Amino acid sequence: MIAAAQNAVGARLPLQGYRVLDITTALAGPFASMFMSVLGAEVIKIGRTQDGARAPGRRFSGTSFQPSTDGYSQDVNINKKSILLDLKRPEAIEIVKRLARESDAVVENYRAGVLDRLGIGYEQLREIKRDIIMLAISSGGATGPDRDDRGYAAVFAALSGFSELMGYADGAPIEFRGQCDMVCGTFGAFALLAALTHRKLTGEGQFIDASNREMLSLFIGEVLSDYLVNRRSQRRDGNRHVAWTPNEVYRCAGDDRWISITVTNDDQWQGLAELVGGPRLADDERFADGFLRWKNRDDLDQEISAWTNTVSDVKAMNMLRAVGVPAAPVLHPPDALADSHLEARNWWRILEMGEDRTPHIMAGRAPWLLSKTPCEDYRPGSAPGTDTDSVLAEALKMSDSEIAQLREKGIIR
Amino acid sequence: MRASTSRLEVSTSKRVTKRLALSNFMACPGEQIVRVEESSAEAHLSSARTMRMYLERSWALLLERSLIWRTAVLSTRGIETPVGCLEGLTVVEVASGPAGAFCGRLLSMLGADVIKAELPRRGDPTRRWGPFSMDVPAAERSLLFQQLNLNKRGITLDTASPDGFELLGRLLGRADVLIVEGEQPRWTEDAIDTLHREHPELLINVMRPYGMTGPNKDDLAEGLNIFEAGGSGYLNPAGRAYFEHPDRQPLNLSGHTSDEYWGLVAAIGILAGVLARDEVGGQVIDASGQEAHLTISRQQISYYANDQMYETRETYHTAFAGCVPCKDGHVEMYIMSNPQWEGLLNMMGNPDWAKEERFALPSGRIDAGPEIDERLFEWTSTLTKKDIYKLAQKFGVPVGYFATPLEVTSIPQEQAREFFQAASHPVTGSTAFPLSFVKLSRTPPQVTRAAPLLGQHNREVYASLLGIPRSELTTLARLGVI
Questions:
Q1: What ipTM goes with this model?
Q2: Where is pLDDT greater, at B151 or B39?
Q3: Which residue of B has its CA nearest to A11?
């Protein structure tokens, strides 16, 4: 079912030769640097010495504390090295600076100003390395009256206007939590790669001020323009689409099984109608074109549900796809692991583990297949502090005795 | 830039710092107020209050703002004609959905020359999608199309016709990147191989819902389908929205996010290819929509696969607070740690009920979740979103309000950061869009031109760039190729 990690020996990775310092916490920051590490950059995650002592044992799921084997931490930190420093000590700050001198970029997502106070803000690092690029991801951005806001996903997603537009028309807005940090981290990675491209051409580094709120607002750009131009403040309305009806999720047979169906033209509608209600429905005047389907959408949903309720999601998908209708079941995690298409595309990888932790984790590969520079190097994220010695020795050419001294003083772990 | 630097040099004494802060303030919020007036009648009515609030906050903020920050901000502003990050990169976009268009838009905002090819006469499908400027439905008035195609040049080209495909080939001879997405170019693998052979330095980014290989490769899917196939849909909605209607269907993300997120992931793949091109040349990038979404589902799937944790819409919520209803909408309250809990109690004026021992620890509060919610909602039902938000800011509690489009467009933070900017469009006039999503200090995203009219740059591209004689262009137009 699952291919073992295939590390194509000798194949070049797209960002081979780049080094990125990761001074991040929670999710958006580590997620941004994850893109760099799967693309082949050497990502060094700088943790605090205190974190090394924290057992990876408990995880808060929202309603309770759950045991955790730390699988996700290894996933989001895929291919990253981990070093632990006591950032309250000037010697540790000195190490960060020396590492920055040997790096191309820094990714951070602490509150605006935190790194400046530690002495490793953009301007301070630029003194050491003129062309350094720093990606700073924060709740509302590094300037403006809200620059000190703490970044919790659901909170800044609400302020961005994104969440208010998501939900049932007659219900509460949806808190955008899980995927929210990931979306923002992805944006950050894009900006960082753009800055690396600029540096390659001009030799210039720069500071990237990425505001989570702005990145989320951009996704509802046309809705915001609708207000700015037409003074219309749009409201949430389920799965409604501006142009297509149906564009909806319907219940199938089974427990919490659903299928999404979209009809983008009349031909597709004919295919769907024949399947769902035969000639009676295909000829039904109420649904003859896109506008009528939209106008009579409640009746339409009833007709379609009556059919989907009787079949499994997979059967419905196969039948709909056979007649050329865009349709996909709502995928749950167990389905994802058993999906034959993903298997054929070699999506899942089993990553070999080091000692002391779980024997392996399962993780998805990079979301692109690049024909000449495949991202085929996957290792689970290092346990905190695993690479402290090797990074200091290799990147900073420190001797064993220097490293031992730093450890004795509690500056590194 | 020079002026501001010299001012910075003398700004060591406190008094001078103050003066600098004031002049800085006058320079930016002055513009901001104008924009408020332009942008919203409601905001205009409350602009006096907004301005006072802004003044108070800006004053305090600017005083404490570090010298370094001022340098960064001012130097960004001072650049007269900033160069985009991706200046010099030529992209040809043959896309018909928001996914490919958003991908191109990200590159065009950062300075790439993106040439969008649309079907002759019909144009891009999103030209027919609302909202429309002044609510007049017309191909040149779609705000969605305009927003997705800022800074691009537009040509018409039917790539399905042999003449059109040949013409595309000539254009690709001048390009670095080709974005292929949507219905129009349903090219075979052979056609893509041919393009790759003929243009070995070209990055060909192929966006198909399920990728270029595998049993589902030819299946159709739109944004909603991709999102549901991408492993996040089963968790949406959770929390309050779910409990109000637990029997209803899962929901998509806002707007066209499902498509646009795919475009964002694809853009990362393109830039990775750009960075590697000196060493390996061009390549084909297979960017699957489903896999883009599986990437934001990594956490939940990893919990299931590796940590034996399986969240559902029913379990995926905070023990209490979260989305909290109030007088005029909802606020989001994130109350997890003890300091956050204490902050909340302070906000509420330390009510007696909360003094019980069992509320003292997170675990006790988890058990008492519904009870806390009941008390909390009783309190919030008398207050507006902004009342609660202001109190929370005062007490340092992580609270945000669910902002409507009206509110987002007049939030001081976004205004101060000049998030909204106008593009001058020949048909719809000055039209405002959210713009500056990432602020790159040396190469800030810029609006250089509004979205193209259908075929607006045909002559510029075909005649000037490719040197095709005008007579030939007329013939091609008559044949419906361009």
A1: 0.95
A2: B151
A3: B280
